[in-house]
Sequence to fold (337 residues):
Amino acid sequence: MKIGKLELGTLPLFLAPMEDVTYKSFRYLCKKFGADVMSTEFVSAEAIKREMEATKRKMTIFDFDRPIAIQIYGSNIDSMVEAAKVAEEAQPDYIDINFGCPMKKIAGKGAGAGLLRDILKMVKMTGEIVKAVKLPVTAKTRLGWDPSEITIVDVAERLQDAGIQALTIHGRTRSQLFSGEADWSIIEQVKANHRMHIPIIGNGDISSPEKAKAFAEQSGVDGIMIGRGAIGRPWIFRDIRHFLNTGELIPPPLVPEVVENIKEQLLQSITWKPEPRGAILEMRRHFARYFPGLTDFRNFRIDLLQATEVNEVFRILDSIAEHYAENRVDYSNISLK
Fold:
């Protein structure tokens, strides 16, 4: 698979852009465990325009990241064009347009998946961004606004005609948010459309190597993007690649192994955040997802979510490693909701 001149190999595995998730330290672990393509957190065009410091930090790219995209979102075409130019200056490998975020604070303001209600504007915005930058431009979107408006087959063609060089499709409508099941059969329709010649990347409900393989074979996509399934489980990329290559499953990690990786992620955050407490707060969303299926874990989880000092976090993690030394994490009933 290729995006522009970027050669990505066969069925590359992409880390999805996620707000407050795909920052430096989490990307570092995902790359360590075999993610082929990174993405920053998605960034607001208006925030870029206002030169907000936090937004600039989100667009910082590190050597380990590559290849990596910066994803931008917004509802104003001129602002999006300017944001794409600024993003290009940060030297990502390509720029991705967010036409898929379903959250009210974004879609409700006509950005993200909100543009599925104005396809003409979506296509015009895409074309203007493509003309404004030298880097390849891609897009990520959904099947449509709601079940009565499944527009993706037409939208995919029109975005391709506007100049994008790859398209990621999340197999849900905007109205579904993250409920129900992703419909990969419609992604398959896009991929099977003889008018399509750009790579199609599938996204939605990838929570296991078996699902990744089944969805890829069903749809014929060129790449797979993993989002929520990687939170608390950055080694899912390694597990998927191993299963695709060998048909064998890697046993889930022992709890002490998980603890060492959490420590590594936290230390990476500390080197990046202005002060350690910010790094701990950043990690809390991950703490809640790293230890699925452990019995009598509630008090440990509460302690982790209340800790404010690095030494305190490490002490709790060491206690977890000791208490569950022989246990493996259990992903069999994991929920992405």
Notes: The chain has 14 helices and eleven strands.
